[in-house]
Design goal:
mainly beta; Methylamine Dehydrogenase, Chain H; five-stranded mixed β-sheet
């Protein structure tokens, strides 16, 4: 099935073999919108970078939940390749593995699918491009994939035969597959027609896999190119990350038809050995493998590096530095220098005590040849000045490196914070410093939880998973720092996960954000600002019994009251404060409380709060922080409820059956507004408001959702919801939209979050129309 990023989109099914459903053309759309990212630069996990050996400057980067990117060497920026992904295939925004055809720079292949762990999770797919990712053909696989699962740092599990670009191999994970799949699907799969159709290598002939998730499955395949016969590479190796497997390395000498265990090395994991992470065959004829004592990328406390001589069938332990009880870590990333035989770098992982590092050898990893780059490495954060939290002078964690096959000085590594690069890697060979800098321009993979556009001051504020949140005084320049605080109760600089953020509609300089530091033992975080986000102060106290925090938050129109509904894990009913968090009171009315986990929001023009609960028709109204009542039941259970800025009592909600409007704070609701566009029914999932069009009396309305053909829709109305225009196109679908917010100062400008936990940062659109 051919996907044209300009005009067509996919229909995804949960399970349907290896053939895809037919194409349905996307509806026509309004012209004139330009789409780009609010600039953060980095922020998400880039778990693999692949260099093409046949074209200088051609690199691909994959992320666990935010699509893939191609490097533009002329501008030193990364170009997103998966923004065409429609809502129906939201799970495909996670890139599981990337492979290139070494003999054809035009070809690139991706396995996509973010998770494989819950019932009826969508099947993954192999995406095939013959134009470096400008367009893709998708071939659905009969099983799900797991780009955001344990072991996502390992790879690459998808590979092309370097002697025959028609032949590919893909190794699955060893997870317990849910309905409607079966565990017999786990194993090694192969294609002989450039990824169009796939056949599983018979279980008795393939590297064995359990189905209990004790590992990451077949994490890499490596072709020994000199073994060409009958038009195919005959000798192929596979790394097996599975605590039940008899070996961590398997070999085929008949082009992948039959496989046998390779004895030696660190020993089978089942017998106390280690899990393989990366395996590459160098020009010196050695297969280099990094190992850790967990599947990764977290949980490693020990690791090793080995090399296996393909010609001599011998192993050698070449570990640069042995972990100890006081300096525990594993080994993960691996890169070989194509121009210098025997030159390689490896990376540590989870080295929390002394900080992760990169080791380099120019002598095949032999004893005494390793150089630790960390003591002399320098770091520059110019591209992403907010990013050096926790590690301003050292390497970052979960590193996956690559060396430019055309220039031994150039290297990148992907990490949990984007991409870093150097142009003087070989300086280490002379005992000099290597200089590293953020090299992630174009990579935007954060996962925003809540965004808001104040009516004055900064145009945008956001609470974001993993990086707390930001005040964006500029949409085109990354912020200097994350939202944080150095004072208050238990939060000094601790925020790493932002969940809810809000500003006072009548006093936009007053803001509030809630979140947590979820690592180790969770630390709740709540901060306020009275100067438009220039500085933040922690709540003096936290609600009694709170352990996680997070959830949703709302501040009153005048900024004097705050309502906080914590995460359901806390099992706390929503609370309020009228003294900036010095004390908190559970919201109660006539002996009732608001539901645990309720979503809260404030009115657009008066000191009124609202609350609603996913999956129910219950709706609550607070005439002030302390005075609440339960309104009439909603017409249907909503997916989102939003108040109209500047219009007291006006609330809209998005639901599966359409858009609903109340002009009396939820006492009654209009009949649903349903949208059909060129014959396709639209199911709204989000709604937001922006500045009215010239001559219009009602704010512009934006609604994100999904059309009945599975494509993503972003609709706009400038006449109060009577007529609608589609403002996105087939190139810009982002795998769905979870939140949409208009700019109240500039007509036409709109901000949005990607749906389903996928991460493309914050997208914004502008239009002269």
């Amino acid at each position: 099935m051919k996907i044209n990023r300009c005009t067509k989109a996919l229909i995804g099914s949960v399970f349907g073999g290896v053939l895809m459903a037919g194409l349905i053309a996307a509806p026509a759309q309004a012209q004139g919108y330009t789409w780009q990212n609010v600039q953060m630069v980095g922020g998400g996990y880039v778990d693999g970078i692949i260099a093409h050996p046949g074209q200088q400057g051609l690199f691909y980067a994959k992320t666990d939940v935010g699509g893939a990117y191609r490097y533009n060497a002329a501008t030193a920026t990364w170009v997103p390749l998966n923004d065409w992904t429609p809502s129906a295939n939201n799970n495909w925004m996670g890139v599981d593995s990337i492979a290139v055809d070494p003999s054809n720079p035009s070809m690139v292949f991706m396995s996509v699918g973010a998770y494989d762990s819950w019932a009826y999770v969508p099947a993954g797919a192999i995406l095939v491009s013959s134009n470096q990712g400008a367009t893709f053909t998708a071939h659905q696989m009969p099983f799900p994939m797991g780009s955001n699962n344990t072991g996502r740092d390992a790879g690459e599990r998808l590979q092309v035969d370097p002697n025959n670009g028609n032949v590919l191999f893909y190794g699955t994970r060893n997870d317990n597959l849910p309905t409607p799949y079966n565990n017999g699907m786990n194993g090694l799969w192969t294609s002989t027609d450039k990824g169009t159709t796939w056949t599983q290598v018979a279980a008795g002939n393939a590297p064995p896999l359990s189905s209990d998730g004790t590992g990451a499955g077949i994490v890499f395949t490596a072709f020994y190119k000199p073994s060409l016969a009958n038009g195919r590479t005959q000798t192929i190796f596979a790394g097996v990350s599975d605590s039940k497997a008899p070996s961590t390395l398997y070999v085929s000498t008949d082009a992948g038809a039959h496989w046998s265990a390779v004895s030696g090395g660190p020993g089978a994991t089942s017998a106390g050995g280690m899990y393989p992470n990366h395996g590459l065959i160098g020009p010196d004829g050695n297969l280099y493998i990094t190992y850790g004592n967990s599947p990764g990328p977290y949980g490693m406390s020990s690791g090793q590096v080995w090399k296996y001589s393909v010609g001599q069938n011998t192993w050698q332990n070449i570990t640069p530095l042995a972990p100890t009880s006081s300096d525990s870590f594993g080994y993960d990333g691996l890169a070989l220098d194509a121009k210098k035989s025997g030159t390689l770098i490896v990376t540590t992982v989870d080295r929390y005590s002394n900080g992760d590092t990169i080791f380099r050898s120019t002598n095949s990893g032999n004893s005494g040849s390793w150089i630790d780059l960390k003591p002399k490495a320098t770091m520059s954060w110019t591209q992403s000045p907010w990013a050096p939290w926790g590690h301003p002078t050292g390497f970052q964690g979960w590193m996956n490196p690559v060396i430019d096959p055309f220039n031994s000085n150039n290297a990148f590594y992907g990490t949990g914070g984007g991409i870093f690069g150097t142009t003087n890697l070989t300086a280490a060979d002379s005992g000099l410093a290597t200089n590293w800098a953020v090299a992630a321009k174009g990579i935007e993979e954060t996962v925003p939880q809540t965004i808001a556009s104040p009516t004055s001051g900064a145009p945008l504020i956001a609470a974001i998973a993993d990086v707390c949140g930001f005040v964006f005084n500029s949409l085109t320049t990354p912020p200097n720092s994350m939202i944080s605080t150095t004072s208050g109760t238990g939060v000094g600089g601790a925020c790493t996960f932002g969940s809810g953020i809000d500003f006072a509609r009548g006093n936009p300089a007053k803001m509030v954000m809630v979140g947590s530091n979820p690592y180790s033992s969770p630390v709740p975080v709540g901060v306020v600002s009275s100067n438009g986000g220039s500085s933040w102060t922690a709540f003096p106290t936290l609600p009694a019994g709170m352990k996680k925090g997070e959830g949703s938050v709302a501040v009153s129109f005048d900024g004097n009251s705050i309502v906080w509904s914590p995460h359901t894990d806390d099992n706390l009913h929503p609370v309020y404060t009228t003294n900036g968090g010095a004390s908190w009171t559970t919201i109660s009315f006539w002996g009732n409380t608001l539901p645990v986990g309720a979503k809260v929001l404030s009115d657009g023009a008066q000191n009124v709060f609202y609350a609603w609960q996913s999956g129910t028709t219950n709706f609550y109204v607070g005439n002030g922080a302390a005075s609440w009542y339960q309104a009439a039941a909603l017409p249907v259970a909503p997916t989102q409820v939003t108040a109209v800025p500047g219009r007291g009592g006006e609330v809209w909600m998005a639901a599966g059956s359409g858009l609903y409007k109340s002009t009396n704070s939820g006492s009654s609701w209009n009949a649903p507004i349903t949208i059909t566009y060129f014959g396709y029914a639209f199911t709204p999932t989000s709604i937001g408001f922006g500045k009215a069009a010239a001559g219009a009396s009602y704010p512009a309305i934006y609604s994100g959702g999904q059309f009945s053909d599975g494509t993503t829709g972003l609709m706009r109305s400038i006449d109060g919801g009577t007529t609608w225009t589609k403002i996105n196109d087939g190139n810009h679908q982002w795998s769905g939209i979870s939140q949409v917010v208009g700019d109240m100062r500039t007509f036409g400008t709109v901000y949005l979050n990607v749906a389903g936990g996928m991460g493309r940062g914050i997208i914004y659109g502008t239009s002269a129309n």
